[in-house]
Amino acid sequence: MKRPVVWVTASLTIAIVVTTTFLIMTTSRGETTSFGSSAGRLEVQTVASGLSYPWALAFLPNSKLLVTERPGRMRIVSSQGQLSPAVKGVPEVMATGQGGLLDVITDKAFAQNNTIYFCYSERAGSSGGRTAVARAKLVDGATPRLDEMKVIFRQDGPLSSGNHYGCRIVQAADNNLFVTLGEHYSGRNEAQNLANHLGKLIRITTDGAAPPDNPFVGRDGAKPEIWSYGHRNQQGLAINPATNDLWETEHGPRGGDEVNIIGKGKNYGWPVIGYGIDYSGAKLHETASKAGMEQPVKYWVPSIAPSGMAFYTGDLFPRWRGSLFTGALAGQMLVRLQLNGNAVTSEERILQNLSERIRDVRQGPDGALWLVTDSSAGRVLKITPAK
């Protein structure tokens, strides 16, 4: 099914609200910066600093956070912003290129079972890496640790030399897990091959099995875990609470970053269709659209490199309720997409003067927006209305 497309280019400003931001004071741990936005002035507080390439955050009881660092560490952040020692029991990761310890989420029943799920790049022999998904029980304390750690899924297919692992996780209402898997950059044509997991979005149980109602279960030559295919490097994943639809963002090459609404068994076209060009400047795709391949609801030319994403449902920013937020790596900003049903009607670019690569964005239990910044001096940031 074709969906409306919103196309953003450097010269096209219609339907885009580009918010001018202004810096009030310099930032260090615990201090605050202030920026303008369509919701009024925002306070951006540094909750924690001193993290090495933080990739994802998850909320724990007692106002604590769990944060992954790409080199292979997991930390608990206290309500006062103090970092725990590295959580023990995290498996070895292949922390080269874009690989490492990546996404983490808590189980829907975490308060009862202390279970988390995380994904990472795992070395496979001496030739490369692949995406793996693990389950464990998080034990908090003076020296936090993972108990009962078990790898529940390993990506099958040609290995990565360090690129395009994907690796976002969402738990659905039925408790099954959706996980994004990249095509390892050099294996882009494998995104159309149902016989492996490259360039796929999978759906698995909390034990790693393929649910029996997955679209390719029982089909010869197809991996039963596959939910959708034809993806490049999927960096954002979230369920729209208003519709229960699964939304995803993925990187294009030079242009053609996408926002997609994911349908069961659908083909999203990479690398056959798309809106970018190769890094060399050469034509990459056969065409921009093709029968049997899904269109994005939005794409960016030039690229902003969208990352973690979240739908906003809180009360702190009533004007933003129902909006979709995504971080941007190359774009170094937070992006708000205004929605009308499944259509993107406008875009607002926020925190541009922060000059930080935003790797993840989540809505906290307090209704604030929480971010992590992607650098060797990474931070956890909290966004609230200015007082």
From TrEMBL:
The chain crosses the membrane at residues 6-25. Gene3D superfamilies: TolB, C-terminal domain (2.120.10.30). The keyword Chaperone does not apply. The keyword Cell wall biogenesis/degradation does not apply. Keywords: Membrane, Transmembrane, Transmembrane helix. InterPro entries: 6-blade_b-propeller_TolB-like (IPR011042), Glc/Sorbosone_DH (IPR012938), Quinoprot_gluc/sorb_DH_b-prop (IPR011041). It holds the Pfam family GSDH. Residues 51-382 form the Glucose/Sorbosone dehydrogenase domain. PANTHER family: ALDOSE SUGAR DEHYDROGENASE YLII, HEDGEHOG-INTERACTING PROTEIN. This is PQQ-dependent sugar dehydrogenase. The lineage of its organism: Bacteria, Pseudomonadati, Pseudomonadota, Alphaproteobacteria, Hyphomicrobiales.
